Amino acid sequence: MLHFMEIELRKSYMKHYIQASCIASIVLLVLIYFVAFAAQVEQEPGFQQYTNIYLLTSTVCMIFFSIITAMMYWRVVMTAYKEHQSNSVSLNTLLLSKMVWMLCFSTIAMMCSIIPSFVVFSVTEMFFPIVHDTLTADVLFTFIKTFLVFTCCVNGIGMIAMRVGLRKKSIFITILTAVVLCAVSGNVSIAIYGNDQLNLALSGVMIAAVFIVILELLSKIGRLQTR
């Protein structure tokens, strides 16, 4: 397993994904401070609240990761097809292992990008507050739950967009589908913020989408190989 992970991480597209995740973390931190400072200067009450700042910036992060994750899923599937042609490993086995790997990796990458940014901002706010609000444990706990929902959305959107793109045989369609799904899920996530039941339902839909796409791909490959 460790050997498989090492091989995958050496691939160029994985290195690009890691670099994009690192850049996203820095950009996100800058965006958080920009929103906080802008709200203070413009006296914008809506963004003088930690809840709204975290929700806006995490939504932007979700959109970014949804798009690049969809592109990564596309590359992973294409790579699996090419590698299958050069060795005797079952395509189903190869594809499933790569999809599960990418699922785990994209989740960890998003966590490693967004959590440090929010931790740094939250810590500095304790000593040098910019926002005229109180950062409570309840605010942080609600954000953590919403972040987990966003993580499910990233993988669900990535999977669906990848499958649509494969059907149309176009990476452009993959990206376009991801953008459209981000717009829909982003608005839904903001609308149901703090509602545990609806957040759980949205997470369930996205998790179900991941499993459906994987099973549908494996089933299609199985039918093609039996012909």
Automatic annotation (TrEMBL):
Coiled-coil residue spans: none
Parts of the chain that traverse the membrane: 20-41, 53-74, 95-119, 139-160, 172-194, 200-218
Keywords, alphabetical: Membrane, Transmembrane, Transmembrane helix
Name of the protein this chain belongs to: Bacitracin ABC transporter permease
